[in-house]
Design a protein that fits this description.
single chain, binds zinc ion
Length: about 325
């Protein structure tokens, strides 16, 4: 079994992964088989379990463990003001709430996964990831992220900045002030890994080829010019990507790239389509622990209980 051709165990919900594992318990497969007779949904589950069983038979114990156990969740944040301006209710976390979320993660045994560790993991150099590894990522470089990230630099956050919007107003988010290069360089010295969010925060799939390459390659060149050792990782603006964008990110020299599709990332996950789950302003300690554990948004019943601001995760 070679890793590039291996299917991605984590391209699935936590429920389906739990079913795959439970299926080895006596009687479970029989029960699923009975459900599959009358339900197309259960038929698909049964087929999925059969595929993974076959792969398990062909794999060594080490390969199987590497494919199905080594994984991590990346959380994504945007603003840290707590102003809850209309339209920003979901992405603007109060700094004190952010501190409480990190404290909850620490108390629950999560450890930060640094940007270089993410890169090494997907290059096959990282070995086994400690259980409960979580990458803290922040997009946009809005000025209000500077102080919280400096304060929590021991969490080894990864900050993705649109390199030619620094020091300006964010056209994509209500004209909020964007951090300056000086502030970004200071964060870099404080231990925050600085990666790319393109040059101008434009939706990459809407651009023509030349513009796209300028945004993708140009921002990496900007980072290399301004910082001694930037994180050669891209976060697609608005998570917007397609196969062409992913290929161009790889060809431009990015080791990995983040989308905003939810889920965990494993060794067989496409390194230029890494998943992240967004943390929202209303997320308390339990919600963040849920997201850091599953890589998924909150279940509908949880959002209903939480109230009117708890829109879709
Ligand atoms: Zn963004």
């Amino acid at each position: 079994m070679s890793t590039p051709a291996a299917p991605d165990w984590f391209d699935s919900t936590w429920r389906l992964r739990a079913l795959r594992r439970c299926a080895r318990l006596p009687g479970t497969k029989t029960a699923i088989g009975l459900c599959a007779r009358s339900s197309p949904r259960w038929r698909a589950v049964a087929e999925d379990i059969a595929r993974w069983d076959a792969l398990r038979e062909r794999s060594s114990r080490g390969e199987w463990r590497r494919l199905t156990s080594y994984s991590y969740v990346a959380l994504v944040y945007h603003r840290f003001a707590g102003e809850l301006k209309p339209g920003q209710e979901r992405i603007d976390i109060a700094p004190r709430r952010f501190a409480r979320q990190l404290r909850a993660l620490r108390l629950a045994g999560f450890r930060p996964l640094a940007g270089v560790e993410v890169v090494a993991f997907h290059a096959g150099e990282g070995g086994e990831l400690p259980h409960r590894s979580v990458a803290i990522t922040v997009d946009d470089g809005i000025a209000d992220c500077v102080e919280p990230l400096r304060r929590h630099a021991r969490w080894q956050p990864q900050l993705f900045v649109p390199t030619q919007e620094l020091g300006r107003s964010a056209h994509w988010i209500d004209g909020e002030p964007v951090a300056s290069w000086e502030e970004i360089a200071e964060l870099d010295r404080a231990g925050v890994a600085i990666g790319s969010h393109t040059r101008h925060h434009r939706r990459l799939t809407t651009l023509d080829g030349e513009e796209r390459v300028g945004e993708i390659s140009g921002s990496l060149a900007d980072l290399r010019e301004r910082l001694p050792a930037p994180l050669e990782v891209l976060a697609y603006p608005n998570g917007d990507h397609d196969s062409v964008v992913c290929r161009e990110a790889r060809e431009a020299g990015y080791a990995t790239a983040f989308t905003t599709e939810k889920g965990r990332n494993g060794i067989a996950t496409d390194p230029h389509r890494l998943r992240r789950v967004s943390v929202h302003a209303q997320d308390g300690a339990l919600a963040v622990l849920w997201k850091a554990s599953t890589g998924e948004g909150l279940p509908a019943w949880w959002l209903r209980l939480r109230g009117p601001l708890g829109h879709a995760p």
